[in-house]
Amino acid sequence: MHDPDLSLAAPVGLAQASAAARKRKPSLGLTALLAVAIGLVVSQGVMVLMLQGAGIAGLGFLIPLALAFLLALTYVLSFAELALMIPRAGSLSSYTEVALGHFPAILATFSGYVVVAMFALSAELLLLDLIINEVYPGAFPSMLIAYGVLVVFTLLNLLGIDIFARLQSALALIMVIVLLALGLAAVTGSGSEPALSTAITNDWNPMGASVLTLVALAIWGFVGAEFVCPLVEESRNPKRTIPWSMILGVTVIFITIALYCVGALFYVPQDDLASSALPHYLFATALFGEAGKLFLVIAAITATCSTVNTSLAAIPRMLYGMAVNGQAFPQFKRVSKKYQAPWVAVLFVAAITGLPVVFMGDDPAAIGLLLLAAAVAWLLAYIICHLDVIALRRRYPDLARPFKTPFYPLPQILGIAGMLVSIYYVSPTPEMTASIFYSAGAVLGLVSVIAVLWIKLVMRKPLFTPEPIDKVLARK
To answer: I need a labelling partner for 24 at 20 to 30 A (CA). Which of 4, 220, 236, 331 fits?
Structure first.
């Protein structure tokens, strides 16, 4: 499944990537791009939040899961149109500066990727530390695993060593197999005897209030497929492979998560799934006994290492690209002479990833808070993506679009509305509401203030005046 150029799954700086890509023959096919779409979505955070949702709503969780899948399809369509309309390596900032201006461009990239790294990667590290200490109690000091993984992958990215990025296809395949194996074994009874087979449909109210408010939690299982878009210049037949890799990716994930959640309901009581910080541990051990522990440790290590490594490769290069465009601190343009790694940006992302770990410590309750705060930030980026499509349809109605969103503007309108509702209902319990919005709001507020000051005082440009599209398409 793997192509050597998958190490470039990270969106490299605009100037660097565009020049390099034009010298190479496009080599990434549908299979390779599909692996990127799936591999960047699957994580321990997904494994935990999906089971917690199943614990809260039972079989009714399939409804918000299906709604989240539909919302994911809307952002996939918008990203596909934008990526093929502006076929340049880069990030959401490239599309947004043309559609809405520099302030939304900076806010979209920071909210969708940098802030998400701050929250979601921290949660991944906490989860890995918790699961290993649960399986091997006392074997490692608290937080040693979390900090160890962060330090190791920071060093690997500083040295330009991308061996784990090169294993992205294999890691994606392993994780999908793990989740499918858990779900299918539980549903078919291939594991131990189901403990709750007679109670799984008890008290199921598919339209219950709690069910419809879980879409924000469910959509976390589908975010990240758009990371294939920066590979548009290196893709064979991108008109077909870019949209279909994302569409197939979120579809495979929907089927996999649905089986995984239904299977867990056969073996673990709903209250336990909803309240546990490690519901996937409960599921694996209930299904496979002691063997489930090793099964889960392998899954946890591959998922977290894949997510952390890919993010530490991708996000610094987004910052590099923004610095090249004048949208971020010029220090982010600094690269090491020997390895050509954007070392300042790598250290910055590593630092903001480790910061919440320092303050949260080994508190299991912090994991859900971090993931849901990240969901708020990512959904905001997706809303901006939908607005980009609408704005560019109005400003450049006659520009060539190799892929056009079917039934425009319905997917964009439904996507924006659905994501706003999801943000409103992001908290699964009233007790978490203030913490989630405070965490996300404080960081996004700080980003907004810095962006305004940067655009006005350094770039000396208007906040909401779009750049001409010819200027972006002409960049080398």
So the answer is: 331
